[in-house]
Design a protein that fits this description.
Largest sheet: 8 strands, mixed
Shape: globular
Radius of gyration: 19 Å
CATH topology: Ribosomal Protein S8, Chain: A, domain 1
Number of domains: 1
Helix content: 10-25%
Mean pLDDT: 81
Low-confidence stretches: 118-126, 128-136
CATH class: Alpha Beta
Length: about 140
């Protein structure tokens, strides 16, 4: 199973792009305890029951997007989610990260800016750098 992680500007959301079909439906979205377990796909039930901190899951054909609670960290959660996806989508295969994780931020004009290496530089307001003007 090949995958690529996508970190969103919202630090509580992560997408995993896969080379295996996750769902045949166009888009399916599930909140943790609101949706009855009987109508959720088995992979969704397993993620909710095994991974502490998951608050929401959205499935698209080749993508799963996961929301987490604010106090939880992705470090522990990602490996557990990938293991569950592996069991359901490609039990005989192996996990292979296809590309480095995608990271981006939204600039002040509302456009997506991809980050190729490291974190985005802090965008400063030019007016902040100007000397203070004192009205007399």
């Amino acid at each position: 199973m090949k995958y690529q992680l996508e970190y969103h500007p919202n630090p509580n959301r992560l997408s995993i792009h896969l080379n295996k079909e996750v769902t045949g439906a166009q888009i399916e979205s599930f909140k943790s305890s609101i949706c009855a377990e009987k109508i959720r796909p088995e992979v969704v039930n397993d993620i909710f029951s095994a991974v502490e901190g998951v608050s929401e899951i959205t499935l698209q054909r080749y993508e799963i997007s996961v929301g987490k609670g604010v106090v939880f960290g992705w470090d522990d959660m990602i490996d557990q989610i990938l293991l569950i996806l592996q069991m359901h989508l490609d039990p005989e295969g192996k996990q292979e990260e296809k590309k480095a994780p995608m990271r981006y931020y939204i600039d002040r004009h509302g456009y997506r800016q991809d980050i190729t290496e490291g974190e985005p530089e802090k965008v400063t307001n030019p007016e902040d750098d100007a000397e203070d003007i004192i009205d007399l």
